[in-house]
Amino acid sequence: MKQIAIIDKNQRSIQKLADELKSRGYSVQNYQDEQEALGRLGDDHPDLIISELALRNHTGPEILRELKKLDPAVPIIIISEHSNTQDAIDSMREGAYDYFAKPLDTQKTLAAIEKALARTPSLDAADPATTPDQPFVVGGNRLVGRSPEMMEIYKRIGQVAASDAAVLIQGESGTGKELVAQAIHENSGRRTGPFLAVNCAAIPETLLESELFGYERGAFTGAVARKIGKFEQANGGTIFLDEIGDMSLAIQAKVLRVLQEQTFERVGGRETITVNTRVVAATNKSLVECMKTGSFRVDLFYRLKVVSIFLPGLRERGDDVMLLANYFLQKYNYQLVKNVRGLSSEAAELVQQYDWPGNVRELENNVQTAVLLNKSGILSCEDFPIYLERKERGPESSHGPAGHGLADSFRKVMESQFGTLAVDFRGALYDRLVQDFERALISLALEKVGGNQVRASKLLGISRNTLRNRIERFGQGAERAR
Question: 343: which of 145, 177, 199, 347 fits an S-S bond (Cβ 3.0–4.6 Å)?
Fold first, then answer.
């Protein structure tokens, strides 16, 4: 029988989880006092430990360090009273198996517990040499968000920061890819070294090579002195290659060599330069599609994608929209020396319902403009550029063409085949057409989000259970609905 130890000063908050574990045949030992737990767990040898983050005598990463001393191979799941960016990163960085905020989602927590217990301990045991002596920081709390999607991002940052592995960050423009790259750097052992960002799409191809690798005097007309490139400047730190999907194949080959061997030559030079630079790359393109068209190297893709992080669009982050809006409100109150107290209910509704195709960057720009122009102390809809743009467009909403436009499009598609369909599906035409449309819509939504059911259900505006029922009915298959 597997033994699970739970350390939590508020036993009522985890009673449902404890009862469910017992019903599944696990032996559960509860501890309200961490001193008692630390005194007994070394002899009890539990298979898994669940611990609250903030206890009476231990806070933050301290309890993790103490528990790891007992047996570094035992998986530890951290639970917290509050959903906090840095707590999630620190917990994963210190070697926690997973992190959950209260109130606990019992099913998700149980799934993590069963996965942890099924793993091979020798592969997951923490290396004490990598345990930091002090907590790390996310630069000035620039990463803002408490949605489940963002909590997964924070946990992934904590997991990958300690290594020197290459990281590929994917997501739409404006989702905060550079902030994630900075958080990885600032939570790593390279945090005292430089962090340099290069936008590969903003620099002409003829200049990008010399920008990255430098050049020797006389390498080309105008090269009157040696120039040190970004890879050398970032030695001992991290280089962030933004929009790497726009990089030419020739430069991709040189970046691949740096990743493989940490060596390169300056433009026009013969000396081999050796560096110790971590590479974090980002793109808003589908590199898989780029590989199909031959514009991106397959070997570079897999060398970069040692660890992959996908950033969701702002429209998929729920309550984070208002959290970010208020964060930017305070930021620009300070920068612009204003005293805006908040948003009107109508403005808050506008912000929450808008689709934000430009993501966090678009939201920030709108709040900045609204704070700058506001005179009443409360932001109204008229203060936001998106509201004025919507008025100028007329009856069409921010979400696309009006409904009757879509109906006209559907009518045109069906018109040429309507007679045949009416004969083939006599008496069941309505049900058949609706079902086929629904099948196509769900298939397309799953394809657009890489098969992620959570994101697909949010995109479609239906519950995950409804989506699962439709997938089963239509036989989409687990391979397309991960």
Answer: 347
Among the residue ranges 35-39, 263-267, 419-423, the one predicted with the least confidence is: 419-423
Contacts of 451 (CB under 8 A, 6+ apart): 479, 480, 481, 482
d(C-alpha 143, C-alpha 419), whole Å: 56
Give strand ranges (E) for 8-52: 27-31, 48-52
User: Do residues 276 and 262 make contact, with C-beta atoms less than 8 angstroms apart?
Assistant: yes
Report which of 433, 462, 107 is spatially closest to residue 470, judged by C-alpha positions: 462
- Where is pLDDT greater, at 418 or 138? 418
226-251 per-position pLDDT tens digit: 999 999 999 999 999 999 999 999 99
Name the domain count of the chain. 4
Number of separate helices (H) and strands (E) present in the chain: 22, 14
Neighbours of 235 (CB within 10 A): 16
Rounded to whole angstroms, how far apart are CA atoms 187 and 396? 45
Residue type, 482: R
For 101, the 3-state DSSP assignment is strand
CATH (domain of 369) = 1.10.8.60
Neighbours of 387 (CB within 10 A): 20
Tokens of 329: 């409100």
CA 178 – CA 184 distance, rounded (Å)? 10
Q: Please provide the average confidence, as pLDDT, over all residues in the chain.
A: 83
Same domain, 320 and 306: no
Amino acid at 240: F
| Whether this model's pTM surpasses 0.85 | no
- How far apart (Å, rounded) are the C-alpha atoms in residues 452 and 472? 15
Question: What does the pLDDT read at residue 444?
Answer: 86
Domain termination residue (choose one: 284, 310, 336): 310
Please choose, from the candidates 449, 441, 448, 450, the residue with its C-alpha nearest in 3D space to the C-alpha of residue 471: 441
Radius of gyration of the chain (CA): 27
Determine the structural domain holding residue 208 and report its residue range: 163-310
| 13 shares a domain with 64 | yes
Comparing 440 with 462, the larger pLDDT belongs to 440
Same structural domain, 330 and 306: no
pLDDT of amino acid 157: 92
Hey, is 268 helix, strand or coil? coil
- Band the pLDDT of 475: cuts 50, 70, 90: low
Q: How many CA atoms lie within 13 A of 349 on its CB side?
A: 4
